[in-house]
Amino acid sequence: MLTQTNANLSPNVVAYPSSSPLTNATVFSFTGSIAFRIIGRVITAIQAQATTVKMSVKSDALAASDICATLDINGFAVGSLLTIDGTVADAMKGTSGVSDAPQGAALVATCVTSGIITTTFGANSTGAIQWEIQWQPLNAKGNVIPA
């Protein structure tokens, strides 16, 4: 299940480094209910070719739900940021600096047994992204770990 919240998030942050070439992956696993925001930082320049990226959440045995629409990251430079604005129909945002990063509402994900947050790339391009998640537990079982 996925919803939006205006919760102020605590400083719980975990990170998952992607590898080159960029391939579809589970980046975080979670349990219970959590509120979260995700930031991706390009740590190795993205290849100059069409390369789309989006993120999804899969809770328990349910189908995956996209938490943003795709963004083409063709040729993104080191230091570029990728964020989501909290509206699942909106494309992921790509910025060249912190001051441009959107401040959208946090998303809420919940599961009974286990959940995952995944990335999907439209091409296996060279480059690497460090994914970071700021999260807050919303119940006693709420927890996040890098995959």
Supply database-style keywords.
147 residues, six-stranded antiparallel beta sheet, seven-stranded antiparallel beta sheet, globular, mainly beta, Jelly Rolls
Q: Any overview of this molecule?
A:
With 147 residues, the protein is mostly beta strands. Strands 1, 2, 4, 8, 9, 10 and 12 form a 7-stranded antiparallel β-sheet that branches. It contains no helices and 13 strands. It has strands at residues 2-5, 12-17, 25-31, 33-44, 52-59, 65-66, 71-72, 81-83, 93-95, 106-110, 115-121, 128-137, 143-146.
Number of domains: 1
Low-confidence stretches: none
The fraction of residues assigned to DSSP E strands is: over 45%
Instruction: Report how far apart the termini are.
Output: 20 Å
Instruction: Please summarize the sheet with the most strands.
Output: 7 strands, antiparallel
Our Rg estimate from Cα atoms comes to 14 Å
* Element string (H = helix, E = strand): EEEEEEEEEEEEE
At the third CATH level, what is the topology name?
Answer: Jelly Rolls
Produce a short descriptive summary.
The protein has 147 residues and is an all-beta fold.
Helix and strand layout, with pairings?
Layout: E1 2-5, E2 12-17, E3 25-31, E4 33-44, E5 52-59, E6 65-66, E7 71-72, E8 81-83, E9 93-95, E10 106-110, E11 115-121, E12 128-137, E13 143-146
Antiparallel strand pairs: 1-10, 2-12, 3-11, 3-13, 4-8, 4-10, 4-12, 5-6, 5-7, 5-11, 8-9
